Each structure stands twice: as structure tokens, then as C-alpha cells.
UniProtKB/TrEMBL annotation:
Superkingdom in the source lineage: Bacteria
One Pfam family this sequence matches: BCA_ABC_TP_C
SMART domains with a match to the protein in the record: AAA
A GO molecular-function descriptor: ATP binding
Keyword entries, A-Z: ATP-binding, Nucleotide-binding, Transport
ABC transporter domain segment(s): 6-253
InterPro entries associated with the record: AAA+_ATPase, ABC_AA/LPS_Transport, ABC_transporter-like_ATP-bd, ABC_transporter-like_CS, BCA_ABC_TP_C, P-loop_NTPase
Biological classification of the source: Bacteria, Pseudomonadati, Pseudomonadota, Alphaproteobacteria, Rhodobacterales
Organism: Albidovulum sediminis
Protein name, as recorded: ABC transporter ATP-binding protein
Length: 257
């Protein structure tokens, strides 16, 4: 039986005394190992807050988020990374003075030391062991021809793909992607879709927050729908598209099966 890699257990998060996530009973759902989970909901549903709770950026006021049985509220960022969690952000983050390849090599080490080494040049001493792996993941996301270019010359969509490459080079156990299609043109969206499908087929656990429902509902195998910080529905994409609660609150009749 597949084990639950991630457990969100009765989580409540407050800001200024108001509950952003959890409602009265707390937010609960599980992510079995190897699942491709889509996290959706209308604006203000609590997706970003939930995503930050799952990745350990925020700590819950009540309840727990467990990754491989470890309470993330009690773990440092380096410990969370060591557990195999990787994530991208809505706004791509990169070192603008470094090349595309160097950005991936720097991202390969989550310990923080390599970031400081990047600016001193000392990290190049250990570059050899990572160069081939970094080049391979850049080829996988379609950036092999930009490998020696500076990050500042990349388009918004290419920066998104670079974010994915920087996480893949660390070989994460669970990969969280925050709005990966934002600013990405249709051709790159198609490539990203294929990458995610391939990662899922390899057994990687994926959690994706995405406003592009056509993109997400076509490739995810499970979906969690939030409304007002609470769980509205969960199930397969087909079940979600046929759920009257979801249709009424979010999807609209044109998404019905």
C-alpha cells in the first residue's frame, strides 16, 4: 500500500486574528507518495498560504504538517531541504550576474555555503561533479542553448523553466511548483506539461498550485479544491469537474464533464 508522504492534519493559520486557512475544524488532506496533486481554488481561497505551510515557510498556529513523519514546524529550512522538499516561487529567483548553468550549479547545494561561494568564485573548485548534471536538467527543460547566457537575458517563461531546473538538479523527493505556467508561452507550457508528466511517471511526488485549470486538470491525478481557506472538495480531475460544489463556486458550467 502506498504510504502518505505528506500529511496536512487539522491545520489552522491565522493572520491578525483572522483564519486564513483551516476554518473551524482545520484543513486536512494527505498526499500519498508518487501522487501528482493539483491545488486549486478561487482568489483568496488560501492556496498560497497552504502552499507556504506545506513547504515550511509558514508555521501553523494549530495542527501539523508532516513530511515523511517529520513535523515541519519544528524543522529548520536546511532540514526541510534535506528531507527532499524542493519548491519554486511565483516570482522566479536567480543570481542575475551568473550564467544559466552557474545558477543551476549554485542551486544544487541547499546548505547555503555554495551561495556565499558563488560570489567569491571558490565554488568553481567543485563545479566538475555538478556540471554534467546541471547541463542535463537544463536540456530537460529546454534551456540547453542558453546554458552560457546570463540570466538577465532570459524571458519570463525561460526564468520559470530555470526555476524548475534548479530544483530538479537537487533530485527532490517531493517537488512543489507555485504557478509554473505564469508568464510562460504556449510552447513552453507544452514542454512543462511533458516534464511534469515524465517526473510523475518516474514516481516523483508533485504538488502544483496553478490558475491554468486546463493545464492542471489534464495532467494531475488528484486535486484538492480550497474555498475560504477550507477544503471544498478533493478527488480525481474527473470527479472535481463533475462536483456541483466546485462548479458552483469556481469552475463554471463549461468545465462540467
Amino acid at each position: 500500500m502506498t504510504r502518505d508522504l505528506l500529511v496536512v492534519d487539522r491545520v489552522i493559520k491565522r493572520f491578525g486574528g483572522l483564519k486564513a486557512v483551516g476554518g473551524d475544524d482545520g484543513l486536512s488532506f494527505t498526499v500519498p507518495e508518487g501522487t501528482f496533486l493539483g491545488l486549486i481554488g478561487p482568489n483568496g481561497a488560501g492556496k498560497s498560504t497552504t502552499f507556504n505551510l506545506i513547504s515550511g515557510v509558514l508555521k501553523p498556529d494549530e495542527g501539523k504538517v508532516l513530511l515523511d513523519g517529520v513535523d515541519l514546524a519544528k524543522a529548520r529550512a536546511s532540514e526541510i531541504a534535506a528531507l527532499g522538499l524542493g519548491r519554486t516561487f511565483q516570482t522566479p529567483r536567480a543570481f542575475p550576474s551568473l550564467s544559466v548553468l552557474d545558477n543551476v550549479i549554485v542551486g544544487a547545494d541547499s546548505a547555503g555555503e555554495r551561495v556565499g561561494m558563488a560570489f567569491s568564485g571558490r565554488w568553481r573548485d567543485s563545479e566538475g561533479a555538478l556540471r554534467d548534471k546541471a547541463a542535463a536538467v537544463l536540456a530537460r527543460v529546454g534551456l540547453s542553448e542558453r546554458i552560457n547566457d546570463h540570466v538577465g537575458s532570459l524571458s519570463g517563461g525561460e526564468l520559470r523553466m530555470l526555476e524548475v531546473a534548479r530544483q530538479l538538479v537537487r533530485d527532490p523527493k517531493i517537488l512543489l511548483l507555485d504557478e509554473p505556467t505564469a508568464g510562460v508561452d504556449p510552447s513552453l507550457q507544452s514542454k512543462l506539461s511533458n516534464i511534469l508528466v515524465d517526473l510523475h511517471a518516474e514516481g516523483r511526488t508533485l504538488i502544483v498550485v496553478e490558475h491554468n485549470l486546463h493545464f492542471l486538470l489534464r495532467i494531475a491525478d488528484r486535486v484538492v479544491v480550497l474555498q475560504n481557506g477550507q477544503l471544498l472538495s478533493q478527488g480525481t480531475p474527473a470527479e472535481i469537474k463533475a462536483d456541483e460544489k466546485v462548479i458552483t463556486a469556481y469552475l463554471g458550467a463549461d468545465h462540467a464533464a
